[in-house]
Amino acid sequence: MSGPLVAERLSVGHDGRTILADVDLTLPASTVTVLVGPNGCGKSTMLRTLAGLQRPTGGQVRVLGDPLDKLSRRELSQRLAFLPQTPLVPAGITVRELARNGRYAHRGAFARHTAEDLDAVEWALRVTNALPLAGKRVNELSGGERQRAWLAAVLAQKADILLLDEPTTYLDLRYQVEVLEVVRSLAHEHGMACGLVLHDLGQASSYGDRVMLTAGGEILGHGTPAEVLTSEGIARAFGLDVKVVHDSETGGIACFPRTSAN
């Protein structure tokens, strides 16, 4: 399968230790791909490597057909946007100013904003439902509002690929759903290739078009949620005997641990 972002025999790790080896992964356009697995299995390390923030221990990544390591930081930022778990908010900055920062990849730090820049910022604020927040200071927002503000900032880059590391962390259920609805619309309505790390398997199955399940230094499954998030796959990844129930209306799953009390 081809796509805007392709990893070939990619190995990732840190401190001289490989965590995941020989991974083949494609992020197709108009698709949400979710990485799931137990803590410490390499999901965030994989995402940071795909975003060019750390070097792979083997293999390569191609971004819109070009090797990632041949792209300048600015060239990469024009093609790929990355949102970490806990981005630092500059003091006193408004939501619109934060979104404008996303245009640095196209105009540099000191160039004047063009009409194209301003259009991109307004588009990003609109599709993330952040226009009503535009004049508010980011550090005064609720968790869900702040996450939408950061999404607007990375969308203003007008990149084809969006990578998000646990975008629902620290949010209550309402805001988790709100953020994931935005991500899904970015893929399905705006054609972006979206890759994200999630812990909640129900959300991964409800919002992911494709799921990659990893544990123990290997990829245990990569395909549709129904193909990957099975009782057998979850048992292998998490060491937990569960019954998986599929919801025909939403496409999501619910996992029920089988305990001695059952």
UniProtKB/TrEMBL annotation:
Transport among keywords: yes
Membrane topology: Peripheral membrane protein
Boundaries of every ABC transporter domain copy: 5-241
One BP term from GO: iron ion transport
Subcellular location: Cell membrane
GO molecular function ontology, one term from the record: ATP hydrolysis activity
Any Gene Ontology CC annotation: plasma membrane
UniProt-listed SUPFAM superfamilies: P-loop containing nucleoside triphosphate hydrolases (SSF52540)
CDD domains xref list: ABC_Iron-Siderophores_B12_Hemin
Keywords per UniProt: ATP-binding, Cell membrane, Ion transport, Iron, Iron transport, Membrane, Nucleotide-binding, Transport
The keyword Acyltransferase is assigned to this record: no
UniProt protein name: Iron-enterobactin transporter ATP-binding protein
UniProt source species: Acrocarpospora macrocephala
